[in-house]
Structure formats: structure tokens, C-alpha cells
Amino acid sequence: MESILITGGAGFIGSHLADRLLSEGHKVVVLDNLSLGRKSNLTQALNSDNFTFVEGDILDSKLLNNLFKEHKFDMVFHLAANSDIARSHANPDIDLDMTFHTTYNVLKAMRANGVNKLMFASTSAIYGQTGGIEVQENYGPLFPASHYGAGKLASEAFIASFAENYGIQAWITRFPNVCGERTTHGILHDFVKKLKNNPHELEVLGNGKQAKPYLYVKDLVEAILFVCRNSHEKINYFNLGVEGQTNVTKIAEIVISAMNLNAKIHYTGGDRGWIGDVPKFAYNLDKIHKLGWKAKLTSDEAVTKAVKHILEQDACNL
Amino acid sequence: MESILITGGAGFIGSHLADRLLSEGHKVVVLDNLSLGRKSNLTQALNSDNFTFVEGDILDSKLLNNLFKEHKFDMVFHLAANSDIARSHANPDIDLDMTFHTTYNVLKAMRANGVNKLMFASTSAIYGQTGGIEVQENYGPLFPASHYGAGKLASEAFIASFAENYGIQAWITRFPNVCGERTTHGILHDFVKKLKNNPHELEVLGNGKQAKPYLYVKDLVEAILFVCRNSHEKINYFNLGVEGQTNVTKIAEIVISAMNLNAKIHYTGGDRGWIGDVPKFAYNLDKIHKLGWKAKLTSDEAVTKAVKHILEQDACNL
Asked: Which of A195, A308, B52, B238 has the greatest number of beta carbons closer than 10 A?
């Protein structure tokens, strides 16, 4: 039984990770400022005696250090970040603070308290505009298109220097688009909302050809733990993903079909939905496949399952 | 005639760049907090009517914005940074603030004031431990060994996202070890000091086999301007360097010979001088060579010239 800190653990992905680690019998502390996370994501976790929820901000160094002193963590899973990539176009400080400074503060607290195992939630956004090629983990140059990607790359940079200088071991897992239970925003939510407003026509930003892999959240959690337990370098770094992609037109069709509608799709045109978007993206997954892990659900299956959950949840909220 | 801001312009490299741009008739403003830079480096520049020196800190956003409003810069050359890589091992905040936050503040000021041309002084330190291979500009993964390298990589990350989001054009020039007039610290200074204390024996950290390319500072300044004027992408990125390397034993021999001594070299052993050091490093320079630039001095010639200057300067200070 290990003592584990999950930052951002009330969020979409962090809460699934908390459930999974609690089910294995570990002691889990979630630190989350609830700016994007929701306490309702922790309904299951809060039933466990091994679980502690702390509402607070990583940028509050005193709070963070007290938490480290109290719980003597064996390992930190750092997921706290801004998760709404498009909104920081207007204000890059959002990603400077929520995506980068959070990581830097976690690293300082780990160093100060002698904790030396870190899982970091990185992202395909560090790779920037790759022109749709299959991106390997050693791809370069790294010129992120979004401030979110910049904040994550800046985080990786200091994780590396802390690893070299203070003997911290790191598992950098680069997430693709992830979907499933407990999401609060994103293209699937947008499409459902739009179709509730107008069941006859769905407006799609761009030309519908933007295509990305969507990984089911429970597959992602398995991948994270698999990598942490089976890769033993000083800095371990992996693309986490699923083979294949789902383009925006296909997503629109899945949503329309799941809602039993017959809506027409209207495209606004252009090759991307918003500034900082990466219109086509594909991972090369050889590294994690060779380590012995593969996703259970395909990208299309993950999207279909996620849409079903959104509609069920909406139905509950009526 | 352009209006140009050089941050860190009282430093070793920045002051040479200021002299060069003034000689071409440009208006140059140097902003430097003199924490590492020295006003004496600007003796020549201060004779020019086109030159303005401002003592102040980039992290003072109000000062920075006022400077932008007053001088309506056409372009920024951002060189301000911590330049003493080893010292931030004890305190990484030095590079967080001086190497990364400085860049972020410059980017914000450029956005706020509509300035859209940036030359950034990056470094071979972003590449981390490369095992001595010839590193191309698209090398990955990028796991810097020092906080200095991390701060520079974090800077590149946000330069890329600001370029994509706000139309800033960037020239990222990655410096190697640089030597020549106006240096204040580093291995050449250390060896001269040690030999003045004990002319019979020189202690060398490591095994003497650490080898890096040394570029002469005036060659570097030519390379910076050549790249800015001949490469026209949104993000232009180049290794700036010189073919060949000079290892630590060779440096020791050059210093001993320049001082007319007959000292024995004593090695402390091990493959690197300090934590965060990259013991062997070599650039692939095909990209800048193809653009049409090559260094005039070899690495050994640059070291020899730099040692001569240090000894002359020391003689003047007696």
C-alpha cells in the first residue's frame, strides 16, 4: 500500500485514476482547487476510508508543503492543469499559472520533502503542427501551437532538470484526446448542445476533416499505471493513445445518430476550428505497444461510448 | 534605421551585439539590471547618439511597457538570462525567473505593444545529454540536464505559442559555448585564477575529456544577424556553432602555454565537472552552413584568442 497524491484529482481523468488506485488498496490524497474539477466526480472515492480530499491550490506553497509533510507520499500523479485549450488564446497567463507553475511548485515540494517518483500528464499538444505524420516520442522540433502545449512542454523541461539535479524519477505520459464519463466540455458536449437547440442542422467549425485519436478514459488510466510499473528509466516518456483517428464529420454523425436525429451538417469552412488548434494529429505508438500495452476500445468506439454517457447524464439532469 | 531593444545588452554577448548594430546606424536601447552585465561593456556604445542604456529589470512589467511605448521598437533581441549554469543547482528559482520569466515578460510586452519580430538567444543546453552525437535542430527528446536549459526550452515553448497565436515572427538561435572579450566567468577564468594561485599545478574537475565547441563572440554576432536577415519562416531556428571541439585538457594546455608556465595537470576524475553539466557536445551545423554562414575562427583559435584577452585584461587591472 502506497501513499499517493493526485493533483487535479477531482477532474475528469484524475478522478478515474483515484478510483482505480483506491480499488487496489492504496491511500490516495486528491488536491484540487475545483476551478475545473468537480467534487461530484469523487462520489465513489469519498466512500473509501483510504481517501482524503483537499480543496486547495497547488500555487499555495504552504498548503502544498504541509500536505507533503502530513502524508509522506511515495509518489505524485500530477494532472492539475488548465484543460480548456482554446480559452487561453485571450489570456496566456492561464496556462502559465495553471499548466506550468503548478508543475514547478509540485517539483519544488517533492524536492523539499524527499519524494522522488512523479507521473506527469503531458500531451500531444507539445508536438505542435506536425502535418499529420505519425509522431514518435523523439519528434522535434517542439514548437507547441497553444499556450497549453507550451505550459506542458515547459513542465517537461523542468521535470527533466529536476530529475538530473535531485534524483527524481519521472514517468511522462503524453495524452491524446481523451473521452468518457465525467467530461464537462469539448466537441462532444458542443455538438449535443447545438443539436438540442436546433435538431435540424449542426454547425461544424472548419471543414469537418480535422481528425484526432480519441482514447477512452479507462484505457488511459490503465496505460498510465502500466507505464509507471513497467518502465524503469530515470525519465520514462510515452505517447499514450489508440490506433486510428475519428474526424469531426464522423463525430457529428455519431452524435446525430445517438440522438436519433436526421440533422444536416453545415460546415463553416477552413482547415481548423480555432487558433492554436492542431487540425490533424496521429501518434506513433510502437513504444508503448512494445512495452506490452494496447487500448481496448478503438477511437470510434470511445467516441460512441462517450456520447452515450453524455446523453444519459443529460437525461438524469432533467 | 531600425529601433532595436537588446535585453541583457550589458552582458558579454549582448554588448557586442549592441556595438555591431550601432555600427550599422540603428537606434539601440539596452535594458539590463546589471546583475550579471557590466556597464563597462558599453563604453563604446555609450559614445553613440543612437544609444540608450536603461538600468532595470525585465520582470518589472511597468518599466518594460513604458520602454516599449517610448521607443516603438521594430525588433527585440532577447538575451537577458542567468548565464551561470552551475549556480542554480542549489536554487532553481534563479533560472525560473532570470531565464524563463524574463522571456515570458518580453513576449507579453511585445504582444501588448504590437511588436512582432524577436531574436531569442537559446542554447545547446536544451538538448540535454546527447551522448556526444552531432545534434541536429530537430533532435528529440528534449530533456535538459540543467535548470538553465529547462528555462531556455520553456522560453522556446512560449515563443512558439505566441508566434502561432499573435503573429510574432521568431529567430531562435541556439548558442554553443562562446568566448572572447568581456567574459567574466567560466572555465578559462577559473584556470587563469588557479594558475595564478599555484603556477606549478592545475587542478582540473573531471577527467579532462569533456569536449565542447567554443565559438568566438564576434563570429556569434555575425551568425545571429545573418540568420535574422536570411531566414524568413514564422519560426526560424538554428544551431549556431563552429566545427570541431576543444576538450578540457586542450584548454588547460592553451592557458598554461599562454601564461608561459610549465604546470602539471591534476585531474579530479569522473566524466563531468559538475551536476547538470553535459560532458560531450557537438552540433550538426548543416542548416546554417546551407543558409550560407560559417565561423571564421576554429574552436581552438577562439579559445586561444579568448585566453589572450583575459590575460591582457588582468594585466590592465593590476
From this structure: B238
Residues with Cβ within 8 Å of B109's Cβ and at least 6 positions away in sequence, in order, are B61, B64, B65, B68, B115
Q: Is the bond leading into A141 cis (omega within 30 degrees of zero)?
A: yes
Q: How far is CA B276 from CA B43, B103, B273, in A?
A: 35, 22, 9
Of A126, A128, A160, the CB nearest to B144: A160
Half-sphere exposure of B290 (CA within 13 A, CB side): 7
Helices A147-166 and A102-113: crossing angle, nearest 10°?
10
Q: What is the pLDDT of residues A17-29, one digit of tens each?
A: 999 999 999 999 9
Please report, for residues A29, A316, B47, the alpha-carbon distance to residue B19 in angstroms, rounded to integers and kept in the order given. 57, 70, 10
Give residue A68's Cα distance to chain centre. Answer: 24
Chain A residues in contact with chain B using a Cβ-Cβ cutoff of 8 Å: 89, 92, 96, 100, 104, 108, 126, 128-129, 137-147, 149-151, 153-154, 156-158, 160-165, 235, 237, 275-276
Percent of all residues in chain A with a pLDDT value above 70, rounded to a whole number = 97
pTM value > 0.90:
yes
Q: If you measure CA to CA, which chain B residue comes closest to A126?
A: B157
- State which amino acid sits at residue A134: E
Is B276 in Cβ contact with A164 (below 8 Å)?
yes
pLDDT tens-digit profile of A211-220?
889 999 999 9
In this prediction, residue B195 carries a pLDDT of 96
Predicted confidence band of residue A318 (pLDDT cuts 50, 70, 90): low
From A143's Cα to the closest Cα of chain B, the distance in A is: 5
Contact B144 A154 (CB under 8 A): no
Cβ atoms A279, A271 nearer than 8 A: yes
How is residue B268 annotated by DSSP? -
Instruction: Write out pLDDT tens, residues A150-208.
Output: 999 999 999 999 999 999 999 999 999 999 999 888 899 999 999 999 999 999 988 99
| Residue A311: count of CB within 10 angstroms of its CB | 16
φ/ψ region of A301 (left if φ > 0, alpha if ψ in -120 to 50, else beta) reads alpha
Please give the grid coordinates belonging to residue B165. Answer: 497565436
Peptide bond preceding B141 in cis form (omega within 30 of 0): yes
pLDDT, tens only, A63-92: 999 999 999 999 999 999 998 888 899 999
- For residue A75, which of A117, A32, A14, A121 has the smallest C-alpha distance? A117
A130-142 confidence digits (pLDDT tens): 887 899 999 999 9
Distance CA A159, CA A173 (A): 12
Q: Between helices B187-197 and B248-258, what is the axis angle to 10°?
A: 50
